User: Fold this.
Amino acid sequence: MVLSAAALVPAPAVASDGGTAEGAPPSSQVDNPVVAKKDPVLAIKDCEGASTAKIRVTVMSNGELEVVGVVWSSDEDVWAWKFKHNGDFSYMGEVKAKDADRSLRVVRFMADLAGTDEVFFRAENTSTGEVCKLTKNV
Assistant:
């Protein structure tokens, strides 16, 4: 019960493609490396309007899934987003699309459960109502 409630607490989203250079581990992982167990599963899809969305799910060696949801928007509106894991809500929040490419990027970690994991990403433009939906199985 405690874990379920903690998973529903909204966490801040990253609204741009920040981070370390390609291939370089984050500094927090230098002494205790957590590496991908296999290549990430990726899906890219056009949304209901002019935007495009992507979901990337990577199975990590520490028993977690790294889940990345990205939307390339045609404007700088606020987007409401959520992740579901095997049908249950995991995370939700809002973020403003920004930067030169008007994108938003949300990164979260989920437990890698036994069997196939289904990860769902949904983002909705709060001004226009445009919706992006992607599902990936790993």
